[in-house]
Amino acid sequence: MLQWIRSAIFVFQIYLMMLLIGIFFLPGALVSRTAARYACKTYCRWVFWTMRWMVGIQPILRGTPPQGEVLVAAKHQSFLDIMMIFEASPSAKFIMKRELLWTPVIGLYAQRIGCVAVDRGKKGAAVEKMLRDVEQGSAEPGQLIIYPQGTRVPPGVEAPYKAGIHALYNQMEQPCLPVATNVGLFWPRKGIIRRPGTAIVEFLDPIAPGLERLEFMQALETLVESKSNSLMREGGFDA
Predict the structure, then answer these.
(1) Would 145 be classed as within a structural domain?
(2) DSSP string spanning 160-225?
(3) Which of 11, 91, 104, 219 is the most exposed place for a label (fewest CB within 10 A)?
(4) Would residue 239 count as lying in a domain?
(5) DSSP 3-state assignment of 98?
(6) What is the pLDDT of residues 4-42, one digit of tens each?
(7) pLDDT tens-digit readout, 49-59
(8) Containing structural domain, residue 85
């Protein structure tokens, strides 16, 4: 019961701080992508600091975070892995559902840092426009983050990897950096409770460009799932 109360207070204050930080940095964010990114990273650091002493979650990064232009394909278990990957990456932008642009605070800042909003079935066209904008200088290069399973997947649940990830990998002609995690053990995709423990996001060795679809999909899924299962066992959960 005490952990639930701590969790409820923690959840309340992080959403309150999202609003306050969003408003405080808004003037700068409207004119500068750098300021918008700084605001988002400030929020992430606030969440990491408060979750350590309020609910006992220790965020740990392993491996080498992405640098330069690269496609990042990550295991997605909760909002925490989004923040940990973003804070560790110099110029991260996410592929996101277009309807999220209407989410208060999140939608505005997602636009300002260059996230790629897509309609169902039109992801390729959106990424093509982003690449064209980067080439023309109207958009910044950076790390494009996608969740190849398409949604948050709780620990122990299997979900297929969607073939669209290979289409983007092929289209972008860039390395793909796999990312594994166990954060869902401590910050679930739904509910209030946050459980104490070591939440890990691990950046794995990149997959070189140019692989055929089957070879790429097998390599990506094997790397991410095997390492995520290992991290979850480390956290006390046997998938």
Answers:
(1) yes
(2) PPPTHHHHHHHHHTS-EEEEEE-GGGTS-SSSS----EEEEEEE-PPBPTT--HHHHHHHHHHHHH
(3) 104
(4) no
(5) helix
(6) 999 999 999 999 999 999 999 999 999 999 999 999 999
(7) 999 999 999 99
(8) 57-234
